[in-house]
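From the shared-data thread, chain only:
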Amino acid sequence: MELFLQRIFKGDRAIWLVMVALCIVSVIEVFSALGADSFQSGSHFMPIILHTVFLLFGLTIAVVIHNFSYKYTLLLTYPVVLAAMVLLVMTLVSGDSVNDAARWLSIFGIRFQPSELAKCAMLLYSAWKLDWGRRSPENMKKAFWEILVVAAIFVGLIVKQNLSTALIICVFTYFMLLIGGVPGRYMWRLTFVALAAVAIMFILLYTIPSVEAIPRWSTWHQRLTTEKVDVRDPEYTITDDNMQQHYAKIAIAEGIGVGVFPGNSTQRDFLPEAYNDFIYAIIIEDMGWFGAILLPLLYIILLVRCAKISAKCVRAAPMLLMLGAAFLIVFQAFINMGVSVGLLPVTGQPMPLVSKGGSSQLITCIYFGIILSVCRFGGEPDDQVVLDSEEQEDELYREQHYGTDSEKAG
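Structure, as tokens:
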């Protein structure tokens, strides 16, 4: 049995254990958090069965991807980028609107969020271009600007309906450029422009209550300007604006200590999106301090393990793919946790591989497949041979057109 599992689940065992552990937590806690959703469906088990099927399908995708070299994944870069852009345009034109946000697209009865595919597209494109850019200063300059242009297109297509995802793409792009070897002078300029843009956006959101052309503007303004109130205040009332945070705090308070154990949650019937945006609050209610520590620990293990393995990669592409995928998973997970405990405004970002949802789960499993593929093939010696050959070709080209160093000196 052990030999059979080793033949299927290759690569780093710690990363596989983290993935499987997150899937197990997801099945248990989504089942605990469903509550009213199960009642409305007419079957207590059908929603969790569908959720489990999605997880198994995602696990299968990860197994398939990790059996192929990451190089084959990079070959899909441009098709994935083009597909993401087309789907985002379709979403703006005819997307399904939920809470004044057209984030969903339905094709052949299958509903998904193209913004999740956009994150994956930026991962592939950034790794591809930065690996190419490291061959020469000229290439790096072109790669820097091309990555920014593609990121700007994605942000422009997403920001109107999903500000949090647009900001995640911005932060992720900056992270990839930072670790990708972009010269410091470019990064300092980008940092200055980014900080100025954030400051302007913050001021506009804080001072302007609504913008007719952007339906979600009033929601962003409300989340930014909502003041924390004391529940002991006699004038305190539960409204649509504070309902999620209110019941999330109650769930966390009830979970102090050992928790109420899975299946005994009382706040799942009051907390909107208990199985999605606020799943961490339900986990704390069910599992107490153990659950509160377990989830962050699993994601930190994933990040640390990926950082350690990426240091052994022989070229930039696999290193960037692994660190980029790990960053997307862990960063989004901690955003979800921050929202659940009241440290961040409500963003609508699910917890990767734990929250209920189809497109987010599948994309997260693709990230795990890419990470595990790099674990297996990122240290191949032929990668270094290819890289050395490409560098020699670039050097020969420069000598033919610009002369050798000795000729220049003469």
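The mean pLDDT is 83.
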